[in-house]
Design goal:
763 residues; eight-stranded mixed beta barrel; five-stranded mixed sheet; 62% helix; elongated; membrane; transmembrane; transmembrane helix
């Protein structure tokens, strides 16, 4: 800014002081002094416009930066044109008029190209078809006026060369093209008069074209006041454009301001109906004037009817405006909350991207949970009241300048103006904490929770689609955490989501392609080291993803609703393999299969287990189902399912005991046979407290007549301690890692050959 603002300010003070001294000393006249001062300002402002336009292009301070490069070049030509024109006015022998005309043509050509480029970057909306006819009307009238004016100038001004006349006619054509382009840009401008910078530039350019068109009659009248008017008009136009360019460079007045209803109605009426009709009315006046005002009855009728038609069109336009506003209310407003809907939010987001702002922005998406359950329980009318109360809570805790939108499905969104990421996260946590208490509606207290996903917008790279996708990624991650969580998007979240999407895609084909394999980890009796059973563990290897652990793909399969089919595949494969082994083993072994709670809650599950056992032919007492402690979340229904499994003869065990929802009440109520102590307790076995906890669990299982299994045994010392405190069965890497079907078969053969005295452990 120091390159343009300070020198102009200092030079203006210096020039003004010198000219004022000359005027007071009667060296020059007042009008002449004002003219010199105007010329100085015009030169300096023209230079400032050129420099700052190029800076906007270089610093990418606009959504169409290349326009500002062309605009800067155009105003460099204008600056040169005004300088040469002043030299020509002062001494027509020193500066040939041909040179002035050539530079003037270069100025308007470069400006015309810049405006055409800007117009090409604007998408024409639905009203463009009707504007084509308006444009033809304007073009016809302006062309007639320009040609008529050019003929008048050619008659009043005597050129030395025929080339002067041709060049001057070219300038008149350029006037028409520039004016039409300005009108078109103004019409098709997406912001419709709401961006002050754009409006100032268009008004300033219009003044330049108009005053340049009449410069010859003004100077040939030799009236000092009219000549001064020419300079003041140029100065005013340069001031408007310079202010707009400077604001664009500094990021001011670039925001789209939503017009008021009355302003919008007036603008629409003038633009759509009154301007074309008024243009025809002006053409009629000019026609009558050119004929010497020889008005007959038909001409008089035309003069009366056109204003009446304009009044009628204004009334029609007003009614149409109201109708359009009602349709917009229906299309862009949510009926329940009267907030802007998803389409309105997408439009606002698009406007944000095409505008330039120095301030950082972030999109915030809020998801209110349990709304579906509330609707199912209390009805949609009550649910709507809950939504309105949620909107009220959100609005109370966000900045009033942040407009809230409804995306649907219990999701809301707004655009956050950032200072720092830390401050934004702190403010959003306050929003989430507003939902920590119950919502009181119609004498009912309901509890809703909220999760928030945030993405910081990158104006230079993002699109509307990418912004929503990244904010949605953050929201999905927030849903994995406890209630009232806030997650800000980062690249790790995106890579993890891409990985998840790939797994989802490949999971759909994994069953059909038989990609799931079952590994087996043996279980041993700690008293005599005898092998008593195996635990079946699912493994998945994909040609695109490689080896995918069950901890990664099982939760995704549960979300996709594929866990039942995968579980059935693993169960049938494990039970069938166990039966094959038992056909040649001296002592039969059991097989335990992990079961998801979602499988257990499926109504088909018990029937599937019974059918598989009968079809395969394995004794049901050799089959054990391992269920996690989360079974306690739906205790009543799951107790019924476990009882049905017990009637079939299948054993059930609680896996990872001590890490979740288990309690003494659960152990007493659920019909289970085995308790598996989680590896986390085994790892801390050398601590006195952990050992005491395990002893207590073993004693409890003895009282409840439950079998006890310790998993995750990794050393001889752990096995010895567990044996001493009364644990009967153990499994872990100390005995054997999980083995595929071939290696497990070999282990069982070696074990059988040594008559259960020594177990071969693979390296």
């Amino acid at each position: 800014m120091k390159m343009t603002k300070q020198p102009i300010f200092l030079w203006s003070i210096l020039t003004g002081g010198v000219l004022l001294s000359l005027i007071l000393a009667n060296v020059i006249e007042l009008l002449e002094g004002l003219r010199y001062l105007s010329v100085t300002f015009i030169m300096l402002l023209g230079l400032r416009i050129s420099v700052e336009s190029l800076m906007i292009w270089r610093k990418n301070k606009s959504d169409i930066p290349f326009f500002w490069l062309l605009f800067g070049i155009a105003f460099t030509c204008f600056w040169m044109y005004r300088s040469l024109y002043e030299l020509y006015i002062q001494s027509d022998t020193f500066m040939p008029y041909m040179v002035v005309l050539v530079v003037e043509i270069m100025s308007f050509i470069s400006l015309f190209i810049a405006l055409l480029y800007k117009l090409s970057k604007r998408r024409l909306h639905g009203k463009g078809k009707s504007y084509v006819f308006d444009l033809l009307i304007y073009l016809t009238i302006l062309t007639a006026m320009m040609i008529q004016g050019s003929m008048f100038l050619n008659q009043s001004v005597h050129y030395d060369f025929m080339a002067h006349q041709y060049l001057n006619s070219t300038v008149q054509v350029l006037y028409t093209g520039v004016l039409i382009t300005i009108l078109t840009i103004f019409y098709f401008n997406k912001i419709e008069m709401n961006n002050r910078n754009t409006t100032q530039v268009l008004v300033g350019l219009t003044l330049i074209v108009c005053i340049d068109f009449v410069k010859y009659p003004i100077y040939h009248t030799s009236q000092p006041v009219l000549v001064m008017l020419d300079y003041l008009t140029w100065l005013l136009s340069f001031l408007l454009i310079s202010n707009a360019v400077h604001n664009q460079l500094t990021g001011r007045n670039t925001t789209r301001i939503k017009p008021k209803r009355r302003e919008k109605m007036i603008f629409w009426s003038v633009r759509e109906l009154l301007l074309p009709t008024f243009a025809i009315f002006v053409l009629l006046i000019l026609t009558l004037a050119s004929s010497g005002w020889d008005v007959d009855l038909f001409g008089l009728a035309g003069l009366i009817c056109i204003p009446l038609f304009m009044a009628k069109q204004f009334v029609v336009s007003r009614d149409n405006t109201r109708l359009v506003e009602n349709l917009e209310q229906i299309a862009y407003r949510d009926k329940v909350t009267t907030l802007g809907n998803r389409d309105a939010f997408l439009h606002m987001l698009h406007q944000e991207l095409v505008s330039y702002e120095d301030s950082k922005k972030a999109i915030v998406i809020l998801n209110v949970n349990r709304l579906k359950k509330i609707n199912d329980t209390y009805g949609h009318r009550f649910g709507n009241e809950v939504i309105r109360e949620c909107v009220h809570k959100i609005k109370e805790n966000i900045d009033p300048d942040h407009e809230l939108f409804v995306l649907g499905g219990g999701e809301f969104a707004f655009l956050y103006t950032m200072t720092t990421s830390e401050e934004m996260e702190s403010n959003l946590h306050q929003v989430s904490q507003a939902f920590a208490t119950h919502v009181h509606i119609n004498q009912r207290d309901v509890l809703v929770s909220i999760r928030i996903g945030v993405y910081e917008i990158n104006h230079s790279e993002d699109t509307v689609t990418s912004i929503l996708e990244k904010a949605d990624i953050a929201l999905k991650k927030a849903k994995e955490y406890p209630t009232h969580s806030v997650v800000i998007f980062n690249e790790y979240l995106q890579s993890s989501l891409i990985r998840k999407m790939k797994i989802e895609k490949e999971l759909r084909h994994a069953l059909a392609n038989d990609e799931f394999d079952v590994h087996y980890q043996p279980k041993f009796c700690l008293k005599d080291d005898s092998l008593v059973g195996v635990e079946a563990l699912v493994r998945w290897e994909n040609e695109h993803l490689g080896k995918v652990g069950p901890g990664e793909f099982i939760p995704i399969a549960e979300q996709m609703g594929l866990i039942y089919e995968i579980g059935e595949c693993v169960f049938r494969q494990a039970v069938g393999q166990c039966l094959n082994w038992n056909q040649w083993l001296d002592e039969p072994i059991s097989v335990s299969v992990n079961v998801s709670v979602l499988q257990l809650e499926d109504r088909r599950f018990v029937g599937m287990i019974e059918d598989a056992i009968q079809q395969i032919g394995i004794p049901p007492e050799l089959v054990e189902l391992e269920i996690t402690e989360s079974v306690a979340q739906n205790l009543d229904e799951n107790r019924i399912t476990l009882s049905q499994l017990k009637q079939i003869g299948v054993k059930c065990s609680i896996d990872d005991f001590g890490t979740g929802y288990s309690s003494l009440n659960v152990l007493e109520q659920l019909p289970i046979d085995t308790l598996k102590i989680d590896k986390s307790f085994i790892d801390r076995l050398n601590h006195r407290i952990s050992q005491s906890v395990i002893e207590t669990i073993i004693h409890l299982c003895t009282v409840l007549n439950l079998e006890i299994v310790a998993e995750g045994i990794e050393s001889k010392n752990q096995a010895d301690v567990l044996r001493e405190i009364g644990c009967n069965i153990g499994q872990g890497y100390y005995f054997s890692k999980p083995l595929n079907q071939r290696d497990m078969s070999q282990l069982l053969r070696n074990y059988s050959k040594e008559n259960k005295k020594r177990v071969a452990r693979p390296s």
